[in-house]
Every structure is written in structure tokens, then in C-alpha cells.
TrEMBL record:
Belongs to the shaker potassium channel beta subunit family. It comes from the Bacteria. PANTHER family: HYPERKINETIC, ISOFORM M, L-GLYCERALDEHYDE 3-PHOSPHATE REDUCTASE. It comes from Luteimicrobium subarcticum. The keyword Endoplasmic reticulum does not apply. Residues 37-349 form the NADP-dependent oxidoreductase domain. This is L-glyceraldehyde 3-phosphate reductase. InterPro entries: K_chnl_volt-dep_bsu_KCNAB-rel (IPR005399), NAD(P)_OxRdtase_dom_sf (IPR036812), NADP_OxRdtase_dom (IPR023210). The keyword Oxidoreductase applies.
Length: 358
């Protein structure tokens, strides 16, 4: 039986400029503004996670002006449950603010059985979006992404499906995720030819994962790259919405003692992506050094990690996860912190090493 909606109204001052509240950035050369810190649903919104905690985090997000919520067909666990739970939150008060929200979802990883439950075919993308809309109880999403490249499907077919999805009104904007620089250029060219812009790209980026800065990054698409992903996105006018900016928690105070606290992502058996094995001595030395820089600025390590990414105006938004409203508050405050000085950037550089914590 559906639960009765709990009365709730978002804070009147949610769009007031001020310390601790969201600031907005233009997404590439589109007309879309996104909060500099957005909230992701990969973890913390599945059936294994407490509903009331999810609700508190989401309500705080809206109260702080965090308008952008990032989902995918396979988020949970189990896969699909983050979208089902989000639908429940929409019916539980959030839905009154639908027109103030940018809701994203994606397809590209394995979601269903058989040949149409994975990849980049038109068949998979269109049917998966229909299922996502049904799970969330929505008529349309704001952004629909192809979640990862599928080398076995012609790019023309995948991009053609994204363009048709926009024309059908089921998504307002489209994006790609985890595409290399060269593949991104080609995707943008194909979409352009279809009269639909590539609005956004979602790559990973953090102090410990700097592949988007690296012109030598290769993905086997067409050999050696000559441009970094950030250079390509800047040139094309495509916004970068970067994921795991806190390196799943490694760039926070969560693990500075060298142990994974109870309930943390590294300690939870439902996370195959992060474990105590990631907490090496090298990691700890770098994280503690970065924490000292953060303390010198009166920031938490998480805030420093976000302020550092936001130093580059080709980044539209940092996409954080949060297991509590308090964490989200802490992260959102990074967007209104003073910019890093050249000396602070130089002090960070020796410790912001690609590959740390793997
Ligand atoms: N496109 C893709 O392929 C892709 C892949 C991965 C993620 N994403 C998107 O990016 C989003 C974010 O990814 P992520 O969850 O890995 O991001 P993250 O922000 O790097 O890590 C989030 C985790 O860090 C900890 N944390 C967050 N804020 C904190 C704070 N202020 N202080 C202390 N600890 C804090 C929490 O860990 P605890 O849970 O331990 O408290 C939280 O679950 C996802 O939800 C998803 O929307 C996209």
C-alpha cells in the first residue's frame, strides 16, 4: 500500500545567494544552468538504504538549491531500485517541485536479460528510457545519457537514438558518459548533423583520477589521442559533469585514520568498488597532506577536493554521492568557498597524483 505523502515545503530562501547554498554554472554553450555541486544516486538510494535518510538528504538538497539529481537505470542495489525509490520521493513531496529539477538518467550498462538489455543499440536505449520513466513515474527526463561507449554498435545508431529521444519529448537534453576525447568529438559531430546538440559529458575526475586532463589518454577507439577530454569539451562547448569527485570517499575525512569506519562505503559488503584494500600507506600520506592544505583554508578535505575541481571553468558540475544530509551540506558549501590561490594549487599538486587509492 502506498505511504501517505508527508507534508513538506522547500525552503523559501533556496535560491538566495549565500554561503552554503548552491551556485550555478552554465552547461557548455547550452542555455542550461546546473548547480556546481549536484547529487548522484549510484549509492545510498537503493532498497538496501534507509528511506528516511534518503528523504532527508533529498529535501536538504532542494533546500540548498541543488536542483540536479543524477540517476541511471541500473542504480540500486538492486538495479532499478534507485529510480523506484526516487519515484516514491517524488510522490512524497518532491514532485511539487518537478519543474525546478534537472533529473538525469542513463542506459549503457547491463540492465536486463538478452541482447536488448545492454550496450548502445536503438532498441536498448529507447526501451530502457521508457522503463526508467515508468519506474520514476515521469513523462520525461531532463538529461538522458548513453552511459558508456559500445564499440560494437555504430555511433550513428546510438546518437540517432539519442536524437530521436529528444524529438519524442522524452528527454530535453542528451549526453554521453565515459566516452574518450576522440569518440566524444565524433558523437558531437553525428548529433550535430541530426540537429540535436551534445549538451553534456559525464567523465570521472578527482585529485586522484586526472585522466580528463591527459592528452595521452587512450581508449582504443582510434589510437593515440592528441587532445585531453577537457580540451575537447571546452572546444565543443559541451559541459562536463564530473563523477566521483571525492574518489568515492577517499578524498574526505572518512578514512584518514587508515581504517574504514562502520557503515562507510569501503566497509559495506554491497560495494565491490571500494574496500579497505584501497587504504594504502601512499594513499594515506597524500590524503593527510591534502587534509592539511584544507585545514589551512578552513575547509574539510571533501570541500577542498571539490573547490579544486571547480577551479576549471570547463567543469559545469561536480556530481557527489552523500550518505547523509550533513555530508551533502558540507559538500555544497565548497561551491561558495574562496577560489584557490596559485600557491595553494602548487601546494596541492605533489599530492594530487593520478592513480592514488587504486
Ligand atoms: N557515469 C558513470 O559511469 C558514473 C559512475 C559513478 C558515479 N556516477 C555518478 O556520480 C555520483 C557520485 O559518485 P560517487 O558516489 O562515487 O561520488 P563521491 O562524491 O566521490 O563519493 C561519495 C561518497 O563519499 C562520502 N562523502 C560524500 N560527501 C562527504 C563529505 N562531505 N564528508 C565526508 N564523506 C563524504 C560518502 O561515503 P560514505 O557512503 O562512506 O559515507 C559518499 O557516499 C553517483 O551517485 C552517480 O550519480 C556516474
Amino acid at each position: 500500500m502506498p505511504l501517505p505523502a508527508t507534508p513538506w515545503t522547500a525552503a523559501d530562501d533556496r535560491y538566495d545567494e549565500g554561503a552554503g547554498r548552491a551556485t550555478y554554472r552554465r552547461c557548455g554553450r547550452s542555455g542550461l544552468d546546473l548547480p556546481a555541486v549536484s547529487l548522484g544516486f549510484w549509492h545510498n538510494f537503493g532498497d538496501v538504504d534507509r528511506y528516511e535518510t534518503q528523504r532527508e538528504t533529498l529535501r536538504r538538497a532542494l533546500d540548498l538549491g541543488v536542483t540536479h539529481l543524477d540517476l541511471a537505470n541500473n542504480y540500486g542495489p538492486p538495479a532499478g531500485s534507485a529510480e523506484v525509490n526516487f519515484g516514491r520521493h517524488l510522490r512524497d513531496g518532491l514532485g511539487a517541485y518537478r519543474d525546478e529539477l534537472i533529473i538525469s538518467t542513463k542506459a549503457g550498462y547491463r540492465m536486463g536479460p538478452g541482447p536488448y538489455g545492454d550496450g548502445g543499440s536503438r532498441k536498448y536505449l529507447v526501451s530502457s528510457l521508457d522503463q526508467s520513466l515508468q519506474r520514476m513515474g515521469l513523462d520525461y527526463v531532463d538529461v538522458f545519457y548513453h552511459h558508456r561507449p559500445d564499440p560494437s554498435t555504430p555511433l550513428e545508431e546510438t546518437m540517432g537514438a539519442l536524437a530521436d529521444i529528444v524529438r519524442s519529448g522524452k528527454a530535453l537534453y542528451v549526453g554521453v558518459s565515459n566516452y574518450s576525447p576522440a569518440r566524444t568529438r565524433d558523437a558531437a559531430r553525428v548529433l550535430d548533423g541530426l540537429g540535436v546538440p551534445l549538451t553534456v559529458h559525464q567523465p570521472s575526475y578527482s585529485m586522484f583520477n586526472r585522466h580528463v586532463e591527459d592528452p595521452a589518454h587512450e581508449d582504443g577507439y582510434d589510437g593515440t589521442q592528441t587532445e585531453s577530454l577537457l580540451d575537447v569539451l571546452g572546444d565543443l562547448g559541451v559541459g562536463a559533469v564530473v563523477f566521483s569527485p571525492l574518489q568515492q570517499g577517499l578524498l574526505t575525512d572518512r578514512y584518514l585514520t587508515g581504517a574504514a569506519p562502520e557503515g562507510s562505503r569501503a566497509a559495506r559488503s554491497s560495494s565491490p568498488f571500494l574496500s579497505s584494500d584501497n587504504l594504502s600507506e601512499t594513499y594515506l600520506a597524500r590524503a593527510r597532506a591534502l587534509n592539511e592544505v584544507a585545514q589551512g583554508r578552513g575547509q574539510t578535505l571533501a570541500q577542498l577536493a571539490l573547490t579544486w575541481i571547480l577551479r576549471d571553468d570547463r567543469v559545469t558540475s561536480t556530481l557527489v554521492g552523500a550518505s547523509s544530509a550533513r555530508q551533502l551540506e558540507d559538500s555544497v558549501a565548497a561551491a561558495s568557498a574562496p577560489a584557490l590561490t596559485d600557491d595553494e594549487i602548487a601546494a596541492i599538486e605533489p599530492h594530487a597524483v593520478h592513480g592514488t587509492g587504486r
